[in-house]
Design goal:
With about 170 residues, this protein is mainly alpha-helical. It has eight helices and no strands. The chain has helices at about 1-10, 15-40, 40-60, 70-85, 115-125, 130-140, 145-150, 155-174. Helix 2 (about 15-40) crosses helix 4, helix 3 crosses helix 4 (about 70-85) and helix 7 packs across helix 8. The termini are far apart.
Length: about 170
């Protein structure tokens, strides 16, 4: 954690290398979040790229170093919302492999490509708000309280919506 705070401090002074290291730490989760919110590879890549460009140019405005991850995901969430407004009925793209286990996370199990497609289809079948809550929690690491504030909801509502959505996914999958 202290190393990340040092990188943020350095990035705020204009250190490109420090910003690049911070970006490496959050890229995978940012891309997953964007893909699951936008359902399209190119749009997700564009949203992440635009977010990184905006974050780099405005990192000096970041108030607290410990807020970097939440700050960059807030930028990304706004970009995804704007992009979703541009299209409503686009086909869902399901060819991406997004659930590969991270080397440092042995609890994630590798599944077959067919299972990945089914999970993504079920995820996309959820209402947009439920998808956003789950994505903010799982990919961006936001707490229920932070999600509630971001989406202008009651914290208990966020928890119940997430719980019901996850229960629905489990029931549909099995």
């Amino acid at each position: 954690m202290e190393k990340e705070l040092d990188l943020v401090r350095q990035a705020k002074t204009g250190d490109v290398s420090a910003f690049a290291k911070l970006y490496e730490q959050v890229y995978e989760d940012m891309y997953r979040y964007a893909f699951y919110m936008l359902q399209h590879t190119q749009d997700a890549q564009d949203a992440v790229s635009d977010t990184v460009a905006d974050a780099f140019t405005s990192i000096r405005k970041l108030r607290g170093e410990e807020a970097f991850r939440g700050w960059i995901f807030a930028i990304l969430a706004n970009k995804c919302r704007r992009k979703r407004k541009e299209y409503v009925n686009r086909p869902i793209e399901l060819s991406e492999q997004l659930w590969e286990p991270k080397e440092n996370n042995p609890t994630v199990q590798k599944s077959s490509e067919a299972e990945h497609a089914v999970i993504r289809q079920l995820f996309f079948s959820l209402p947009e708000e439920d998808r956003e809550i789950i994505a903010l929690h799982l990919f961006a690491g936001y707490t229920s309280k932070e999600i509630a504030k971001k989406l202008h909801m009651n914290e208990n509502t966020v928890r119940s919506k997430e719980s019901r959505a996850l229960k629905k996914l489990v029931e549909q999958y099995w």
